[in-house]
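#random but structural
TW: two for the price of one
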Amino acid sequence: MRVEGPGVVEVSDNCVIDGDNAIRTTDPRAVVRIGPGCRLGGLFLDVAGEVVLGTNVEIRGPLIIDGPGRVIIGDGCLIDRGSGGNAIHAVGQESTVSIGRDCYLNGVDIFATHDVTLGDRCMVGECSFVTTDFHSADADRWTPSARTHAGPIIVGSNVWIAARTVITKGVRIGDHSVVSIGTIVREDVPSGVIVSSHEQRIVKYLTPPASADLFESPTWWAPPNKTA
């Protein structure tokens, strides 16, 4: 295992380290703690915050964790290979990504500006958790003042989230529920149900900006003295 950076890295007893693994801390306050009995087969950290792996966590394929936030993976979790590995981006300074005990992750991609919480014994396929819209959905989305929306994601225990799904900002999924393949979860899901949404529907009508504003107003990605 390659370890570099000014932070603290603690690896407990009885861990097995196979293949290529790398830990890089980018802040003196960064802390990485790997619990006893873990099996690491492709852990890649580039962190300024805190990463904690519980007891007997097994990583079979690539798991990338980066950002200044906090990531906690509970005892007995299995991180499988998926088709493209797994990634947890704890990009919010105060964000915490918490994975409960005995969870199975197989190709998850988490982008956390806010907290993301998974309960115990969840099964999660190749899907995305996104706590922000990234860009505004308003018609003036190019402007520096355009609104974006963000919020935490909470998933209960014993939840199965199938492949090619997207869990969006501010959503809560209740215990024992199933999110079927290809679903985009935009609203809360109660406990003990199966949800599926494959149909395209209009969810909101936008007010377009005045045509003159389209090229005369500034954009958020260009300096004021630069023509976009």
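TW: number two ↓
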Amino acid sequence: MKKISEVIKKKELKTRCHFEKWDEKSVFYASRKIFQEEFGNFGARNFILEKYIGQKLYVRPQNSVWSSELWLNREKLTQKINEELGQKEIKEIKIIL
């Protein structure tokens, strides 16, 4: 599967300013893909992507077990999502209980 940054034409990506932000839909797409790679199909279904505001991704785990799993892996997930998007778009993953 291609990265979302590869899907966008290279010409468009080059003209994109470094301060221009991805929209919520694109961030959710990349995040779901990474969650599925890291936790598998079953695990990915246990996380609800609530919103994306101010370079923070808000995620609601289904229970405390998945909340702990997200807490332990949040830095790695943030890095992989940013790699998928092709720039440092997400600074932090926030857990909503």
